[in-house]
Structures are given as C-alpha cells and as structure tokens.
Amino acid sequence: MATIEKVLIVGGGISGLCLAIALRERNIEVDIAEIKTEWTVYGVGIIQQSNVVRAMAELGIVDKYLAAAFPFEQPCIYAQDGSLIAKLPGLRLAGPSYPANLGVSRLALHQVLTQEAQERGARVYLGLTLKGLDQDEQGVDVTFSDDSVGRYDLVVGADGVFSRVRTLLFGDRYKPRYTGQAVWRHNFPRPKEMDHLCAFPTPNGNAGLCPLSDDLMYMFVTSSEPGNPYHREEDLPGLMRDRLKGYGGIIGELRETIHDPKEIVYRPMEVLFVEEPWYEGRVALIGDAAHATTPHLAQGAGLAIEDAVVLADELNRKPTIEAALQRFHERRYDRCKTICEGSIQVGEWELNHSPEADHKGMLVKMITLAAQPI
Hints:
Shape: globular
Radius of gyration: 20 Å
Order of helices and strands: EHEEHHEEEEHEEEEEHEEEEHHEEEHHHH
Number of strands: 19
Oligomer: single chain
Helix content: 25-40%
Strand order of the largest sheet: 6-5-14-15-16-13-17
Structural class: alpha/beta
Number of helices: 11
C-alpha cells in the first residue's frame, strides 16, 4: 500500500464524496474543500446504470444508496407518439439481489453521500478552494483561497468541468467546449405505471421520463441551442414546452402542465477530456475535472463514481503514490474516453438530424462496456 496518511479532495460533489468515503474506509485522513458556502446541489435527477450500483456496493453503501432511489430493470425506447420500440438489456452487476438500473434525485444522492462521508470522519470546509500548490517528492504544500495553508500526501481535484486543480496542473490547455445543445429538466408526480426509464429519441432531440421515488419522476429533453443563448427565467416554461412540441402520449400531456420557471433546470452541455495523464506528481484529477461529457448515455456521474473506487483501490494496492496514479490512469482512460466519445456522438447525431439519433445500438454497446470490470 502506498504510504499515504492525509489527502485533500478539492470539490465536495459526487466524485469527491465517493473518494472520501473510500479513503476513510482505509483510515486515511481526508479534508474536503468545497467552494460553495451552502452545500447544495444543482439539478433534478440522475439515471444510473448497473455499473454504478456495482461501484456503490464496492464502496459499502449500496443499501443506503438504493433506499434513496427508485430501482428498475429494463429501460425502454418509445416512438415520438408514445408507442414502444424496444426494451434494452438490464444487467444486475452488483449481484442478483440488486437492481440493474435506478433513478435518484440529486438531492437524495447528495444527502446519502455527505452523511456517509462525514460519519466516516471526513472533514469538510465550505467556501474554500485551492489558490495554489507546490509539491515535492514527499508531499504537496497548498494555499487555500482564504490564504490558509496545509500539507498533504496527495491532492485530488474533484472540482468539476471548470476545475481549479486542472488549471494549476495544465494551465489553459484544457477548456470546456460548448456542444451546441442543452438539456431541460422538470420534476412531476409519478403515476404508478411510470416504473422504468422511458426514452423518446428523435433525429432532433431526445426526451424521456425517469422515476426517482415512489411519488416523484423527472422529465428531460435535449435541444439545439445555437450560440449558447441566455434565457430569462420567466421565459423557460414556454421555451421548454416549445422544445417538446411534436411529442404525443404522456410527454405531450405533461408538456401542457409546464408553467413554473422555478421548476425547470436548464443546462448547456459543455464537454472536456484531458488527453494526457490525469496526474502530475502527487496531484490527480477525477470525474468531470478530467472527463466531462454529455447526458445522452447517462454515464457522467457513473464514471466519476467509478474513478473514486478505482483510485482508492490502486492507492491500496500499489507501493507508491506514483505507481498508484499511473495504474489508476491506465485503468480509467480508455473506458472513459470511449463512453464520453459515444455520448458526444449521440448529441452530434441529434444536432445533424441524423437517423442514427435513435441511438439504440449505441446504448446497447455502452451497456455492454459498462458491464466490464472497472
């Protein structure tokens, strides 16, 4: 096991919290620096596949995780009018007692992860990020945004697509790229029959519904938004209804109930992939800081959680931090690159109004890839 006693994780989101949980399980001291002064989460819900359930089992929190979520087996693809086209395979990678897929609200997931990380002894500092770092062969000296200082055996940037840690490592070589698309999300009460992921792909965009709990589900729709426009909050309901025109069935029915702008989460899609090793010395990147992708294949958060599991595993296996970080990168690079590129490809098909945008084949391919060991 690498000689490591104290780790700084920059970013208290999904990847940072999962890493904190994994490291505390190994009795490694963990500090989390989170830039938000209020530890809230952005978004509505997340679709998570069987590889994420497997990763949560490896973290030892799968039962708490599932208690906050809505499990289902097979995602289904429907035509724009609501008729069924295909059922996708559901794989129980965590074992026969655990579901193949699930939907979970971002708030519920955040509460599970924050509670677990803190109960295991991770220290959290809000309103704080990294100002600078200086590393040598024995450790990393850091200066925080409040000018306080610290020394750590390892620093991990889990601080998202606009990562400060990535900038400190690589300068301006990697910047997020706007894809030309955005995603709109809205919560609704869940009827009993809505018990699985329902996707309605078209050549122009992709709408869908996903259950989050016994009484809650969310709708999403992707759209072309040339030039990354700014939308006023009061305009969001009308714009989201417009993006949903042409859909029949339950999507069409729900569309007409969208009126409250505060219920809508609008997010431009920005992507980034670090092509070189995701570490330098004793400083590493995980999650969106290294590989931010689009939501088309529902794997962004899943890849971030896997990163945390694999990094902790390699720190436990390898005799040095350098060897652990090298092996972490080797295990993660090709898998993340393939899934990220596949997800971005689906968005490009939608932007180009291509018939491939039904992406059944892509989804099956990625489900097969996700089933492989991490």
